[in-house]
Design a protein that fits this description.
Elements lengths: L4 H6 L1 E5 L6 H14 L3 E4 L4 H8 L5 E6 L8 H13 L4 E5 L2 H5 L3 H15 L3 E5 L7 H13 L4 E3 L12 H11 L4 E5 L5 H10 L3 E4 L1 H9 L1
Parallel strand pairs: 1-2, 1-8, 2-3, 3-4, 4-5, 5-6, 6-7, 7-8
Helix pairs in contact: 2-3, 4-6, 7-8, 8-9, 9-10
């Protein structure tokens, strides 16, 4: 695989999402993301303004998780959070699929939930987290098609908060085969080495969600 370090950095969404995250930690990560040239930084919506301010003048974009990590809030709340995150300076949204509606067979409500967030995003890129550890292969494909039909730009594998939150080669390949070449696929979950990173790209991912140390390990590899 022929790829430069700068191209790799541009594909990485460096995340800091624990509920214990402090403002000082957000600012510290933003300084690292800025100085080391990573493409994206993902923080919870309470920290968006702080991250945007710390990254001002850099190429790094701020990604906002919405309905995170459960996805089990009303659609209106997801839309409200989306609109406020974008107003605070985020430029991408990672929303969590309403898994209860989806697994209960209410595809119409699950799709409407995604569609409303996409509309609320007003053209900003929306990634839909389908939480692959909870799904069968058929459900992974169905969830991917649902999000695609609702206008999402990316399918994302995991929040990192589910049981065994690993991005699997087979899952990424299945998602890519399901949505085709025009939609993005974000592999998130224990992609902590260059070998794993290369495998995700080979499977069809074009964005990776990970921690700072995992990002640094990929570049060392």
């Amino acid at each position: 695989m022929s790829i430069t370090a700068e191209e790799i950095k541009g594909m990485l969404d460096v995340a800091l999402l624990p509920p214990t995250t402090t403002p000082t930690e957000v600012e510290a990560l933003a300084l690292v993301v800025r100085s080391e040239g990573f493409g994206q930084m993902c923080v919870n919506t309470a920290h968006i303004q702080r991250a945007v301010a710390a990254l001002k003048g850099s190429r790094a974009k701020v990604v906002a998780p919405v309905g995170f990590p459960l996805g089990a809030v009303k659609t209106e709340i997801k839309v409200f959070e989306t609109e406020h995150a974008l107003a605070d300076g985020a430029v991408e949204i990672d929303m969590v699929l309403n898994l209860g509606a989806f697994l209960g067979g209410d595809f119409k409500s699950a799709e409407a939930d995604v569609r409303a967030v996409v509309k609320g995003a007003g053209g900003a890129l929306v990634k839909v987290i389908i939480e692959t550890p909870f799904l069968t292969d058929k459900q992974k494909a169905d969830a991917s098609r649902l999000a695609q039909a609702a206008g999402a730009a990316f399918i994302k594998t995991c929040t990192g908060f589910s049981p065994d939150p690993s991005a699997l080669y087979e899952d990424v390949r299945l998602i890519r085969q399901t949505v085709g070449p025009s939609m993005g696929v974000k592999a998130s979950g224990r992609v902590g080495s260059y070998f794993r990173f290369a495998a995700m790209l080979e499977a069809g991912a074009n964005r990776i969600g990970l921690s700072l140390e995992q990002a640094r390990e990929i570049l060392r590899g």
